[in-house]
Amino acid sequence: MSWQADILTLYPAMFPGPLGESLAGKALASGIWSLNTTDIRQFGLGAHRAVDDTPFGGGAGMVLRADVLDTAIGSIQPNGRPLIALTPRGAPLTQKRVRQLSQGPGIILLCGRFEGIDERLIEARQAEEISIGDYVLSGGEIAALALLDAAIRLLPGVMGAAASAEEESFTASLLEYPHYTRPAVWAGRSVPEILTSGNHQAIAAWRHAEAASITRIRRPDLYAQYIASGANAP
Ligand code: SAH
Prior knowledge:
Distance between the termini: 43 Å
Strand order of the largest sheet: 2-1-6-5-8
Mean pLDDT: 95
Strand content: 15-25%
Shape: elongated
Number of helices: 8
Number of strands: 10
Bound molecules: S-adenosyl-L-homocysteine
């Protein structure tokens, strides 16, 4: 059974977009995941297929109508998948949530546009609100692509080396250690000597210390989580 992604959007042509290329594209072609887009406009009202209206209480912009979105969502078989609304007010997306989602049956993603979505739809459908960062995009589609990309690469059979997902950034609340490849000396800069020592244990210890130090400097918030999780500061 493939991991099922359903997207509700006013711009279905944005999908699969970049997810049709590289790892995600190959995985889509081989059926590891499947993609279905639903054009919200198709459920719009009247001759103009209206999907939005002006906000009660006044203010700038338009709001996506609850009734229209509800019919659009109702056209999709949930199959045990969570409904996720992409919104800047949502819980910040984490690698932990991405991993959970990749281990489930798939996702249904609702992409907002204009000023956003009528609150009653989010309540009535108990949508999980997720944000991809503290900045405002013009629509939920790019956020949906980011979330999908992060989840798809964790599906079994998508990434070549399974180990690379275990060591990378955020997996243990740490940012990743620095990488180096050939040439060993480039523009007068050598790679750290320990990496050419062949001592795997020492290399692992060095990488761990680098990861901890980069995290402590760049992301004190993550570092605090790492220490709180019972890890010893190297
Ligand atoms: N008025 C809203 C912003 C609307 S942006 C506010 O101030 O919060 C239009 C749509 O883009 C949103 O409905 C949402 O679906 C999407 N969007 C914008 N920024 C996002 C972010 N950081 N994460 C996830 N979705 C985002």
